[in-house]
Structures are given as C-alpha cells and as structure tokens.
C-alpha cells in the first residue's frame, strides 16, 4: 500500500456506478492497491443495502449487515469497496480467532543474528493505522473476549489502547468498520446457524447503521445467473430461479429445513455447465444435503418447474405455488 494514496483523492459517480442518487459526495481512491477486492461486473446491488454501505464509507458509520446465508452480504461490501478502490479485508470470526490475533503478541524474532522479543501487531492494529475497511464476517459467532476488543472501536473515533505497549492508537481517517451476520444479534431461533449467539446489547447499540439483506428479487437473480453463466439457456435460468423461490417459500412454511441461496443457485448453474445435466447438477449442489424425508418435496417442486422427475416419490404440500 506504499504507492497508494493515504486518503481518498477522488469521488464516485454513484448514479452511474450504483444507480443511486445521494445527497452527499462519495469519496473514492483514484488507484487500486493489492488489498482492493476484485471487481465482479456481474454483481447486482440492492439499493437500500448499498446506500447503507456507502454511508459507512462516506461518513465513517459502523455498518452491521445481517441476513440469510448466501444472500450476498459480504459481497455487497466488497463490491462497493472494489468500485471505490478502497482497500478491504475480511476476517472470519470463527472460534479460532483470538484477542492476540487482532491486537498482536510478543514474539521471538531474529535481529542482527540475535534472538530478541518484540511486539508483532495483529491484523486489527495493522488495519487501524491504514486506509482499510475491515469486514468482520460471522460476527454473531465471535468469542466474547474478541467481541469486547472490537466494542471500543465501534465509536466513530474509537481509539485502541495497547496496554503492553503503553500506546494509544488513533484510527486512520480512512479506516472503516463493517460486520456481517446471519442474525440481527438476538440469537438464532431457526436452528440453521449453529454456533451463533445473542450479542451484547450494549455493543449492538454502538452500531450506527443496521441493515437487512434478504434474497434478491427473481429478476435480479436471473440477471446474475445470465451474466455469470452466459451459456445457460434463458428458459433454464428462469426455471432455476422459480424453483429457488418455491424452496424458500417451503422453508418459510416449515416444510423444508434447507435453504437454497443465491450462492447455491450459482453453484447449480456452474455444475450444469460442467456435466450438462440439470437434475444431477441440482443433486450435487443442493439435494444431497437435504433431509431424506424432505427430498420427495424437493422432487415435486422440481417437477413443477422443469416438468421432469428428480426423485422417486412425491409429497404434496398445499399452498406452495
């Protein structure tokens, strides 16, 4: 990042880039560095979510984005960052991420041929001092000791105190903080997201912007599939998206325990291009992880959309059309 500007030095035309008219200019970097996400030209933005993310980049608001898996939460942040040339790093808060990983630790290093102990900063300390946007993925699965490290930073100008170093770090003016999660911080009542937990409400209160992202409208999902997989026939794409919508409706009604996400839709389409078999491609992408008792229903929904058998047996569930 040595050759990149240390602060935004240009502005983004949001009407052209995001089809959004905003009452304030959105800063951007004129040049990209190695930490700027790769731009996906096939990506489609949801206006309300995109506006919330742009508030985060423009006004240094802390943005918490939640919604079902595979709906494009992290991708939305990354693709906004890609179009702003804003360096962006994702950190998955799994059970192995510790306070030391974020803050740093004393380590033995070799200096002038001698072993010496020195403090090696963690990823959070590194990012705080640079024009970088950090995205904490799976935020509602983070360990309590890690979450309290982050809590102080949730203030707009939150400083980080390194007790071992007798040092207080003031965030870089272009440092930004985002989080994505499957829940709104109240815990998971569906059983889909094992490992998530209810978040400290004092911490949730510090997020300036909370936005929810569901699955995209069918038209946008079709556009994404067509853009990413141009070899797929239009009729096939339309039927795939219709099938996905029916499975989600069945999930909402409690008839299915597995959810077919946009990510799974893309995987299904990619499998079709590889093996040229729509039914087998669906089995590999989705059906094989469904409960055995639910597969007849999946087969019925597939037959409605593709007029072809997928599985032996059927299960009639009223109200799914």
TrEMBL record:
Keywords assigned by UniProt, alphabetized: ATP-binding, Nucleotide-binding
InterPro entries: ATPase_dyneun-rel_AAA, CbbQ_C, P-loop_NTPase
Gene Ontology MF annotations: ATP binding; ATP hydrolysis activity
Superkingdom, taxonomy of origin: Bacteria
Residues annotated as domain CbbQ/NirQ/NorQ C-terminal: 221-292
GO BP annotations, alphabetical order: ribosomal large subunit assembly
GO cellular component terms listed in the entry, alphabetical order: preribosome, large subunit precursor
Domain ATPase dynein-related AAA: 63-186
Family to which this protein belongs: Belongs to the CbbQ/NirQ/NorQ/GpvN family.
Protein name: Aerobic cobaltochelatase subunit CobS
